[in-house]
Amino acid sequence: MIELIDVSKNLGGKQVLDHMSLSVEEGETKVIIGRSGVGKSVTLKHIVRLMEPDEGGVRVEGKDVLALQGKELNELHMEIGLVFQGGALFDSLTVGENVGFILREHMSMAQSEIDKRVRESLALVGLYDVEHYMPADLSGGMKKRVALARAICTRPKIILYDEPTTGVDPITADAINQLIDELHDKLKVTSIVVTHDMRSAYKVADRIAMLYEGKIIAEGTPDEIRYSHDPYVHQFITGAAHGPITDGQNSNGRNGG
Ligand SMILES: Nc1ncnc2c1ncn2[C@@H]1O[C@H](COP(=O)(O)OP(=O)(O)OP(=O)(O)O)[C@@H](O)[C@H]1O
Questions:
Q1: What is the pLDDT of residues 77-131, one digit of tens each?
Q2: Which domains does the chain have, with CATH numbers?
Q3: Which of 42, 141, 180, 187 has a CA 20 to 30 Å removed from the CA of 80?
Q4: ipTM
Q5: What is the distance in A from the centroid of ligand 1 to the CA of 186?
Q6: What is the chain's alpha carbon radius of gyration, rounded to the nearest angstrom?
């Protein structure tokens, strides 16, 4: 289970998270939607303590993330697979080295075990015999799959996906959505998927939460969100240019503006 409790974070003078609370049940896939710059990535960074809140708490699997130190923090990082925006593979390492990187750096596993785990992880994302390829030899969709394989190679309990379908064509995006579903079923993971791609959100989510002006303003099943009468949700999911969501920092938003 993942819990952000009343988290506030100011970055560069902007109140990005403002007493924000979110909880993700064990085995659930929660999708966070919201406009660019609304704080979706910042939210994920708090869960792995790449960022610390100004106020509030973060709990993962019952542990107070802000109290973890050294070895315990490393253990937390082993329990969480991160799929960053863009995939970000190391260009100078082979696919196999990329996928096994964390195992080599942080776990005392024999090379033969690492090779086996790398093969298994690649197979889970539908890739076979690609260990010796260089990232530059791969298509965008394959790179995303390799990034997924890398995220699952520690067999995490949690996977955090930051815009996994951004920058790929709709068919590749659909294949990635399917993989997110499959990994959820096969590895029984708890997942958070950050996206502004509503097709992806409806496809992979157990529940969808919408972030706006520092808070979760709506949450529900895909159907509850799809048929929501909330004007903010409706505007976002239909992509309407006009509505209560504004571009400005000084909007007359629902939080008092
Ligand atoms: N390290 C930082 N220092 C200063 N400001 C930051 C930092 N990280 C993020 N921000 C700001 O916080 C806000 C939220 O950023 P975040 O990356 O979480 O947005 P997002 O919702 O993930 O957007 P996108 O969909 O474009 O990725 C943005 O205004 C961003 O500029």
A1: 889 999 887 667 899 999 999 999 988 887 778 899 999 999 999 998 889 999 9
A2: 2-238 (3.40.50.300)
A3: 141
A4: 0.95
A5: 32
A6: 19
